[in-house]
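Model: You mentioned two targets. I'll fold them one after the other.
Researcher: Yes, keep them separate.
Model: Target one:
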Amino acid sequence: MTIALRWKIAAAVAALVVAILGWNGVSRWLAARHADELIQETERAAALQAEQARASARQRHDELERDLRQRREELASNYRQVADQAREYQARRAVQLQRQQQEAQRVTASYLLDANQQCANGIVINRRGSSFTQARGRDGGPIRCQGDRAAEPLR
């Protein structure tokens, strides 16, 4: 049995069409598989990058938190130092004011007549027993007074 040339050509063309269709199907399947692998690889890379970004963000957050904690501690330390310095200044100032007040009282007391002195006609008179003398100032003249207060220091 001989097969006619037409049938042989038709069979060859049919086999070629089937081969082309098969090749096309396999090619599409391989392309789809390759695309799926690329998508999975891209998803894995994106997930890895996202995890690295989260780790980096956590690390940066921790660094910022440590830095903020350190700055707060430094600020608290500075506040304590300023408060200590203010207390020291206030204590020194209180002592200084007390000394100034004592000096003012001493100066004021140096103008007051004591028990052995009296103001007579606007002049300080010293009394010792039964004798009376005028109190003399720095310039050698009598010291003026009014009431129980002299015009210049007596002591």
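Model: Target two:
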Amino acid sequence: MRFTGIAPVRAYIALGHVLFAVLGVLAWMHWRERTLQLDSACQIFKWIQDDGLQIEAHRYTAVLPQLLVKLFAGAGASLKTLLLTASLAHVLLPWMIYSVIVHVLRRPWIGIAMAVAAVLCTRLAFYGVVLEVNYLLSYPFLFAAFLAAHAEDPDRRWPKVFALGSLILVLLVHPVGSIVALFIVTLYFIGATERGWLVVLAVIIIGWALFGRMILPPTGYEQGLYGAVWEGLGSLRRGADQPALDFLLGHTWAYTTHYMALWALLAVLTVVLVRKRSWAMFALVWVGMIGFILLNITAYHKGESAMMMEKNFLPLAVMVALPLVMEVGKWNTRSQFLSWIPFALVLFLQFRGMSFASREVHERLFLLEELVSKARSDGAGKALVETHELDTWGLHPLGFGLRDSIDQCRGSSGERNGDLCNR
């Protein structure tokens, strides 16, 4: 797994840097769409307006972009500069982590897996910059890199210290971080020669998942989701008639082809593991994928908006990209060369989907600007607008940025309202 400097590795590393560079360009071009709507607008307003750090739902390790915005605010930067900084910071942070993994820790294949995961399941979620689950596409790979450093030389202490520190980043950034971290620890546990430290980490992760909410009590929204999981178990009797499953499968082919790349890479990984007879890894990947999908099916059995439903499935990218790219790292030079083009194609197609998704977000921003202009022309300093009026304008506050019920996703005849729930 060491960085050897051979041409295939360099080509993959360059591909990763190109990806983050073009994501930075996209964040620059669409800074207004990424910062002036929904939760992002609310949180970034508080970053700029209020003193001190603004911590949402105890997610302490999601503060790094906020620190950069506050630094520029303290220097007297303009509002446009602050919003542009907020948009770019959410690309620069993962790019920095990628660079550390590849060039400092010299774990290129883990970094390449991070680049793949950055776009594999992301489309609309790219325009929800303050969704903390986005950090689970970067922090876990830093954790994996330190685990790899420890596995190479178990006698060194610094990988253990930094592995524990990066684990804290994962656990405190989002509740689902426990699932992702446990997946990664199990991934390294398979085939490891020194497993004691991995067992300790697994105990810490499970302990936090079970008792962490006692230390940091969940918000009302999170508490509602925990209750929804139990309530949603009964919804499994409906079989395939599930909003979350409909979203996942629908955006594989019927509505968009967004998840087609995910299933294609999962199929490749499955073939590789079966040919190697790596049954433990095969079981981990498939149990992890199915278990996580079932968790979302039950938690969101009443439905969700498109952007929020998409962010729920982002961790699937980690469960496919990390084990697959680690396997690619073990291939011979010729096989790695041949696989570079398919990987580049996947990254391009997923980036293309993210770019095209800006149209939907821009349309909503345009309608918001029209609404504000109308209020100003009417001489209103502040305006209160009813939900049905926003629906008339085409803003659909309950269909784009807030939680939907299944009834909002379906018409009175039971047919699915694709415009509300699947855009």
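Researcher: Noted. Anything on target two?
Model: The CA atoms of residues 281 and 287 lie 10 Å apart.
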